[in-house]
Design a protein that fits this description.
Blueprint: E1 8-12, H1 15-26, H2 31-45, E2 55-62, E3 65-71, E4 88-93, E5 98-103, H3 113-124, H4 129-132, H5 134-142, E6 144-145, H6 148-156, H7 158-161, H8 165-170, E7 186-187, H9 190-202, H10 205-208, H11 211-220, H12 228-232, E8 237-239, E9 242-246, E10 249-253, H13 260-271, H14 276-279, H15 284-303, H16 314-317, H17 320-331, E11 340-347, E12 352-358, E13 366-367, E14 372-373, E15 404-408, E16 411-415, E17 417-418, H18 423-435, H19 441-446, E18 450-453, E19 456-460, H20 465-472, E20 476-480, E21 489-490, E22 492-496, E23 499-503, E24 511-514
Helix pairs in contact: 1-2, 2-5, 5-9, 13-15, 13-18, 15-20
Length: 515
């Protein structure tokens, strides 16, 4: 009996996001058509985490050739006096922790998502954009039922979505008009549907040179920084990925000027000298090594100024003498005594698409009449480590986003994560789970995580109490009662021989589908 190969596999942050990709794969599209369709649907179904007003990266593998497409945000070409900017703080409440973000038109960097996705689909896809965008357009017109996770993240960032009348009106609950949408509400977005339809028909020039560009500029003249040339001159960049070995796996990830990939590489190289597989997942040695490696990676990030490193800095940070210095520190460490989403797609033709995008938390303002929230990247502390309003003009911003491909014996895994500064430690831990502890994909994604930052170990529930006690004797520990989006959202797919597998991270409402 002839076995017909399945079209592919998807892992994403929402069932409707995955459904859009599945529909495109089943109608003859490839992984790149599918990942673009999925992101457009995510802008409808996951509006806090996905928007056409942000930026991102695609890791694309086609014919065993791997490329990174960088369409992250760009700093404005010119500055304005800070007192003229619409720039103010809010606090996001995660329940166990709060985090300060800055919003307003003064936080908006030049968006890259539209130009990036339209470029990728034209270069790598098979179907016309009108077909690729159809699931998202239909979803925006019909409406999407808000699930528990989406309702929760609306609550987390409620001050942003209440900050301007048009924004609040767009996301107001139809059943309780004094509230933002709640679980069970149907969120209908007709303006976004019209915008997606126009973009699919007219192309990305509408956003970067046409009517939408004019609306962005007019809006930014009320306290922002973007002008027509910021939008007109923006272009995606194609790069070779950062490639390195970790034990018996080949890892390919986002290179500088993004800092996330190189920080993951650095942490894995630190861990490589230690036999983690012998200790077992969740053992005292595992937790203490993982914490120490994260602490030293944070130290190296500041000491080596990795947020300012460009492509020519790759050999320097992974040079043996630099790694040796940090290995020595690891050996004597206490061992001895934000709006980001990810979509992964593989297809039967051998193509892989690993897409991470971010809108920050959103600036609080929609492009008038479009349903598109603009980013707040100039107000993100993680992306501005030297302080706000100090960025160099007309420069691609750095990012923690790190779409990644891991070639292990017998299988290839594509993964990435949302989660601001936590996304790199989430990816790091899933890779360690796969490579060192030989976990199945779903277990590697769902296993409890930790994140070290500012002297504190944030720890999910599920680790052995003896190991936690040993860790707490050396570090301040903040315990979380359950899995939480604070620890990222790794959506991963794998090809093993002729079979596909997928795992969506439950921390961010993740789902996977083999189609």
């Amino acid at each position: 009996m002839l076995r017909i190969p399945r079209p592919g596999v998807i892992a994403a942050g929402h069932p409707q996001t995955a459904a859009a990709a599945a529909e495109i794969l089943q109608t003859g599209g490839n992984a790149f058509d599918a990942v673009v369709a999925a992101h457009l649907a995510a802008c409808v179904a996951e509006p806090v985490l996905a928007s056409l007003g942000g930026g991102g990266y695609l890791l694309a593998e086609i014919d065993r050739q791997t490329w990174i497409y960088d369409f992250f945000v760009q700093t404005p070409k010119r500055r304005r006096p800070t007192e003229a900017l619409d720039f103010h703080p809010i606090r996001a409440d995660f329940g166990t922790a709060t985090q300060e973000f800055h919003i307003g038109l003064g936080t908006v960097a030049t968006p890259g998502v539209v130009r990036g996705l339209w470029h990728i689909q034209k270069q790598l896809g098979r179907l016309p954009m009108t077909e690729v965008a159809r699931p998202a357009i239909q979803l925006a017109r019909d409406g999407v039922v808000v699930n528990a996770f989406q309702a929760y993240i609306f609550d987390v960032v409620a001050p942003i979505y209440r900050s301007h009348p048009e924004t609040f009106a767009t996301y107001r609950s139809p059943t309780r008009p004094e509230c933002l949408v709640r679980e069970g509400d149907r969120l209908v977005q007709p303006r976004l549907a019209d915008t997606l339809e126009a973009l699919a028909r007219e192309g990305d020039a509408l956003f970067h040179q046409g009517d939408i560009a004019r609306r962005i500029v007019a809006l930014c003249r009320q306290g922002g920084l973007l002008e027509h040339d910021d939008l007109h001159d923006y272009s995606p960049v194609r790069r070779r990925p950062l490639s390195f070995r970790y034990r018996d796996a080949r890892i390919l990830t986002n290179p500088p000027p993004s800092s996330g990939g190189i920080l993951i590489a650095f942490a894995l190289k630190l861990l490589e000298r230690f036999p983690l597989s012998r200790s077992g997942f969740g053992s005292p040695m595992h937790l203490r090594l993982l914490t120490a490696a994260q602490a030293l990676t944070q130290e190296a990030r500041l000491e080596l100024d990795l947020d300012e490193t460009h492509a020519d800095g790759i050999p320097a940070v992974l040079a043996p003498e630099v790694l040796h210095r940090y290995w020595e520190k690891l050996a004597h460490h206490p061992l001895c005594h934000r709006g980001t989403t990810h979509i992964s797609v593989m297809d039967r033709h051998g193509n892989t698409a690993s897409l991470t995008t971010s809108n920050g938390e959103g600036c609080g303002r929609l492009i008038p009449g479009t349903g598109i929230m603009l980013n707040n990247m100039l107000g993100e502390a993680d992306l501005n480590p030297h302080g706000f309003h100090r960025w160099p003009c007309d420069t691609r911003m750095t990012s923690m986003m790190a779409p990644t491909l891991a070639r292990l014996p017998g299988q290839t895994v594509a993964l990435g994560s949302g989660g601001s500064n936590r996304l790199r430690t989430a990816i790091l831990q899933v890779l360690v789970n796969l490579i060192d502890f030989a976990m199945p994909l779903e277990a590697a994604v769902s296993a409890p995580r930790l994140h070290f930052e500012d002297g504190v170990v944030n720890l999910e529930a599920g680790f052995d109490e003896t190991a936690v006690a040993a860790l707490a004797s050396h570090y301040a520990v903040e315990r979380w009662p359950d899995r939480n989006l604070f620890f990222g959202g790794v959506h991963a797919v794998a090809r093993e021989g002729g079979r596909f597998h997928g795992a969506g991270d439950p921390r961010r409402g993740g789902v996977s589908r083999v189609v």
